[in-house]
Design goal:
Layout lengths: L1 H7 L6 H10 L7 H27 L21 H18 L24 H20 L2 H15 L22 H20 L4 H25 L3 H11 L4 H13 L3 H14 L4 H13 L3 H12 L5 H6 L6 H14 L6 H14 L4 H13 L3 H14 L4 H13 L3 H14 L4 H13 L3 H16 L5 H13 L3 H14 L4 H13 L3 H14 L4 H13 L4 H10 L5 H11 L2
Helix pairs in contact: 1-3, 4-5, 5-6, 6-7, 7-8, 9-10, 10-11, 10-12, 11-12, 12-13, 12-15, 13-15, 15-16, 16-17, 17-18, 18-19, 19-20, 20-21, 21-22, 21-23, 22-23, 23-24, 23-25, 24-25, 25-26, 25-27, 26-27, 27-28, 28-29
């Protein structure tokens, strides 16, 4: 637009005279005016080319791939494709002329395809081209001032719209109101020029004034009303559905909002409507299955996922056309496998689904993570470890991957390696809470002096971040016990109980600590609470019996504690027998 303005709008000189002077003059040097203009044009072209180059680099040197739901006409054949593309010009022109029915999403089946030349909507397309022809004709016949105004106006309407018109390449939408922002400037210029012509005529001046007042009032009311529609996602999708019942994506989006509002049954109805409109769209099935799973209707959820599986192309086609495997296809395998894996007896079946997803997309890291979890439940720790390593090949900047791998190594007793992976996770995300906690636990159990101080620092860092949990307080208490700081340990255990009054570990460790500090009365109180909630807690029973023997000197009560808890192993009773002198 700046290039056209610079090229056609004269500044302080007659453009034709300057060009004639440049051609006829014997001097090889152009005039200063022309040199300045060439410089400005060169800068504009250079900036435009550089911007296009940077944009091309940003999208990876290739055009994005859209599916048939984003822009149905783009996958249609002649004449449907070309007739629909041309009809969309009329739709956009009508949105400029009469923006009454607005919608946040015009994709999918919002606008039915124009399948043949006999469709009555082709008259709208013809009307658009006739209007453009008439405007161009008017431009050519106008005087210089009028010509420049109309030329800039029509340029603002047409040129910014070309990238969104499917003329250069298919776009990922049918109609998008946002691409009309700049064209609307040119449209306003055309309206303003037309209004000024009416105003200049005496017999139409009053009508022009009334007309512009009417347009301004109606436009202001529409703006206020539309602002209310954009108040939040719920009002936005509600307003869109009031004018557009042919777009399954809108029903899906409204369902998502209702899910977030915990209105699951209403969300399910919207997802069902989406599936009714677009029965081949897997996303609707995924959403329905997720809600049914949340509602514990597992059998129905699995049936929905199985139906979605029938919509997928065969494995041979998928392997040959891997580029067409969409995220929805892959998510289907994950959702179904996750549902099945809730049944311990069907873990192998879930594992097979994860393997199938990885065949379709070898770089699908979510599938590696989920499959590793299933393998761990199948006690296949080594295979799970291999899955995490494979995932790291495709995503080495994910702190969760390093953390999960560290947990697997920790379960295998490879604590040194586990700490290394926890540290790598913290290098990527210094506030990664789980890595801070698990590494601190391992460092606490290590024999390296510096590790114990580092463990305390990491646990305190979690607290500084506002994550005050029972587990953190317990681990800090254990660290304090290990450092012989019993007052601090008691403080941490009591804080853990403030977070969770029936915490098994906090109750036992506090009772043990109090017992070792010869505060048996307090220890008995916490042991009673512990055994009231966890009557089979063996360490608690042992400590309780020990207090009765050594502090209360009541051997019968100690024996009764042991025998009354259905805990009658020989080595536990043996201790009492030795004390009694049997």
């Amino acid at each position: 637009m700046c290039f056209i303005y610079e090229l056609f709008v004269p500044k302080r000189s007659n453009r034709v005279h300057s060009i004639r002077h440049l051609i006829l003059s014997r001097s090889s040097m152009p005039s200063p005016w022309w040199r300045d203009k060439l410089l400005r044009l060169t800068i504009l072209v250079s900036v435009a080319v550089l911007s296009l180059h940077l944009r091309w680099k940003m999208i990876g040197g290739k055009l994005p791939v859209f599916n048939r739901f984003d822009n149905p006409a783009s996958v249609s054949k002649f004449p449907t494709r070309h007739l629909t593309y041309n009809y969309l010009l009329a739709v956009n022109a009508w949105l400029l002329l009469f923006p009454q029915y607005l919608c946040c999403d015009w994709t999918m089946s919002t606008i039915p395809l124009v399948n043949n030349f006999w469709d009555i909507r082709n008259f709208a397309t013809i009307a658009v081209y006739i209007s453009l022809f008439y405007i161009l004709k008017t431009i050519l016949r106008s005087n210089n001032e009028m010509k420049i105004t109309l030329l800039m106006a029509i340029s603002l309407v047409v040129i910014p719209f070309i990238p969104a018109s499917n003329l250069l390449f298919p776009v990922g939408f049918v109609v998008a109101e946002r691409v009309l922002y700049i064209p609307s400037l040119g449209f306003c210029m055309l309206v303003a020029r037309g209004w000024s012509l009416l105003f200049e005529r005496r017999y139409s001046r009053n009508w022009a004034i009334l007309g512009i007042i009417f347009v301004i009032i109606i436009g202001a009311c529409k703006i206020v009303r539309r602002n209310a529609d954009w108040q939040d996602e719920y009002t936005l999708y509600r307003s869109s559905l009031s004018v557009n019942q042919r777009n399954g994506k809108l029903f899906n989006n409204m369902g998502r909002v209702l899910e977030f509002l915990n209105r699951q049954e209403e969300a399910l109805k919207h997802y069902e409507n989406s599936r009714r409109i677009e029965p081949n769209d897997i996303r609707s099935y995924l959403n329905i299955g997720r809600v049914l799973t949340y509602l514990h209707r597992y059998k129905e959820a699995e049936e929905i996922y199985r139906k979605a599986q029938t919509l997928l192309p065969g494995p041979e086609i998928q392997l040959q056309q891997e580029i067409h495997v969409t995220p929805s296809h892959l998510q289907l395998f994950l959702s179904l496998a996750s549902l099945i894996s809730q049944n311990q007896s069907r873990l192998e079946e879930a594992d097979a689904l994860y393997r199938e997803a990885l065949i379709l997309r070898a770089d699908f890291t979510k599938a590696y993570l989920s499959r590793a979890d299933v393998l761990l439940r199948l006690n296949k720790s080594k295979e799970a470890e291999a899955m995490y390593y494979r995932a790291l090949e495709y995503d080495d900047s994910n702190p969760d991957l390093y953390f999960n791998l560290g947990v697997v190594l920790m379960d295998q007793g490879r604590n040194t390696e586990a700490i290394e992976f926890f540290n790598k996770a913290l290098d990527l995300e210094p506030d990664h809470e789980k890595s801070l906690e698990f590494s601190a636990v391992l460092m606490h159990s290590s024999d390296i002096p510096n590790h114990k101080n580092l463990a305390k620092m990491r646990l305190e860092k979690i607290l500084d971040g506002g994550k005050e949990t029972e587990r953190i307080y317990i681990n800090l208490g254990l660290l304090s016990v290990n450092n012989q700081n019993f007052l601090s340990a008691e403080k941490w255990f009591r804080k853990a109980l403030q977070k969770h009054s029936t915490s098994r570990e906090a109750l036992f460790n506090l009772a043990l600590l109090l017992s070792e500090q010869h505060k048996q009365a307090e220890a008995i109180f916490y042991l009673n609470t512990l055994l009231q909630h966890y009557p089979g807690h063996i360490s608690g029973l042992l400590l309780f019996a020990d207090i009765h023997v050594n502090y209360l000197k009541n051997l019968e009560s100690a024996e009764k504690i042991v025998s009354s808890r259905t805990w009658k192993k020989n080595h536990n009773n043996c201790r009492n027998c030795v004390i009694k002198g049997y």
